[in-house]
Structures are given as C-alpha cells and as structure tokens.
Design goal:
292 residues; two-stranded antiparallel sheet; 10 strands
C-alpha cells in the first residue's frame, strides 16, 4: 500500500505523516530532541501539559530556526484542568512561547482533581463542549481541537452531542494494540487518528517479534522502522514515534511501502501477543470503553 504523504483534517489543515512524540522526554533533553527533529525534516511536534516539558519544547522550536508557520504543533489539556480549558490553553501557550497551537487535544476523557484522583463531579462531554466554545471564541489561539485515548464506545457518545467533530483522536496503536474499532469509527466520522507508542513501549517485545524481524530484513530497515511504516501505510493515520536520541530521531523518518499481505501479517500479531502499554484504569474512570 502506498505511503501517505500527510493526513488532511476536517478543518482543511494538512497534518504531517510523522511527528516527534515527546512523552517521557524530560526538560534538559527535550530541547535538543525537538531542535534535532525540526532540523532533520520533521514538521509536527507533539507535546502535552501533562508531560511537564512544554517550555523545553518551545525552546527547541526557537533553537531550530524553523519558522513557526512551517510547524504543526500539538499540545493537550491535562486531566486536572477540565474545569478551566481556556486557562489551561493560555498556560500552554505561555510555556511554549507561541501565539497558537495547531491542535489542542483533550488528553484523556477522564476529569481529575489536582491531586490526580478521578473527579466524578465532572463529565468529559461537558469538557468537550467547553473546548468547542474556546475553539470558536479564540481562533487566533487554537486552529483545531480533538481528543486522545477515546475508545469507539466513548466516541459514539461524544458524536451524539458534539457541535464540532474532533479533528483528531490520538490513541495507542501498534501491532499488539491495533484498535481497529476505534480507527473505523474515526474514519467513518472524518476524524484522523494519530498513533502514539507505535513501537509498543520502551524495550518493546515487538522489536523482537519474528514477523517484525523478518520484514525488517526483507526491507533492509530496522524493526522500529517496520512498526512506524505500518502506521504510515494505514489510511487516515499519522504517527508520533518518540525519542531523545538524535540518531534515532533521524532514523525514525525512514518508512517504506508495505504490501497488503505484510500489513495483514503485522496486524495479526495482536491475536497471539496483545499488549496495551498505557491502560486507562490509572485514571480512576475504569476502562473508558476499551474492551481489553
């Protein structure tokens, strides 16, 4: 299947196929990672208030010398900030040292208190309605809104009442957690999927999987490149591999065309080796509609 060049959002904006993920990229390292990525050709940087690295991301963007207008920048509403969407957005803009973000995501459909307990006094659907209001009121600050970690079941509930269809749903997606139901639901609704943790996890067993190793040898690429290529070959999906190692950041840009048969082989891994590296239960809101 031919590799996509980019994904087009329902706002009309073009979102790059491969971005730099910055989860677990701490201050002191994230600056160089972002600068390296942008100097190497990346044009999407993905961060979040919950990563505690937005300031470093902003420093890296400035250090790269790449014009802000050429960069697609994503950040996310933190779980304890569901009561103050605009305040949280303004805080992120200040830390990032930018006037706007290209995409603002609800990080989890799971409101929490400041001490990271589930806040059952709030409903995430109401948070989305507030995100819609902020989006309409402040087009100079946020160009698109979306969600993250939203299951097919939760998405169905959201679309019943949403007056702005999310532009993106960012979810964990790799051969051991392909999320076919969520992808299909998003595609049917005109929502682009961003795949995070495309390698599975740090020291992922996928990097030693026999199918992945065989395809890596066949295409003369690394196992990581096979896993990133799977997302790049999947319609309506873009991908944000993460690293703070300059060599790996550059290497992660290499993707290849995969055949339908190769894609099917990779997607079949889930049948015998299912793995979700970021279970939703930590939020105190149960499985959030994910059935595994």
């Amino acid at each position: 299947m031919p590799i996509q060049q980019a994904t087009k959002l329902n706002t009309g904006a073009i979102m790059p196929l491969i971005g730099l993920g910055t989860w677990k990229s701490p201050p002191g390292k994230v600056e160089t990672a972002v600068e390296t990525a942008l100097r190497s050709g990346y044009r999407h940087i993905d961060t979040a208030a919950g990563y505690d690295n937005e300031k470093g991301v902003g420093v890296g963007i400035k250090a790269s010398g790449v014009s802000r207008s050429e960069i697609f920048l994503t950040t996310k509403l933190n779980n304890p900030d569901h009561k103050d969407v605009l305040g949280a957005l303004n805080s992120s803009l200040g830390l990032l040292d930018t006037d706007y973000v290209d995409l603002y995501l609800m990080h989890w459909p799971a409101p929490m208190t400041k001490d990271w307990k589930a806040d059952k006094s709030l409903n995430w659907i109401d948070t989305w309605k507030e995100m819609e209001r902020v989006y309409r009121a402040h087009p100079e600050k946020v160009k698109a809104i979306g969600v993250s970690n939203v299951s097919a079941a939760y998405l169905e509930d959201l679309l019943k009442v949403a007056t702005v269809v999310p532009a993106v749903n960012q979810i964990e997606r790799h051969p051991s957690c392909p999320e076919h139901d969520a992808l299909a639901a998003c595609t049917n609704a005109g929502i682009v999927v961003t795949a995070y943790s495309p390698l599975g996890s740090d020291n992922s067993p996928l990097l030693q999987n026999d199918v992945v190793l065989r395809l890596a040898e066949r295409h003369n690429i690394t196992p990581a490149n096979v896993l990133i290529s799977l997302q790049a070959n999947t319609p309506n999906v873009n991908v944000v591999p993460k690293s703070v190692t300059p060599e790996r950041i550059v290497a992660n840009l290499k993707v290849v065309d995969l055949t339908e048969e190769e894609i099917a082989e990779l997607n079949a891994i889930d049948k015998t080796a299912h793995l979700r590296t970021c279970p939703p239960t930590w939020t105190g809101w149960g499985n959030l509609g994910f059935t595994d």
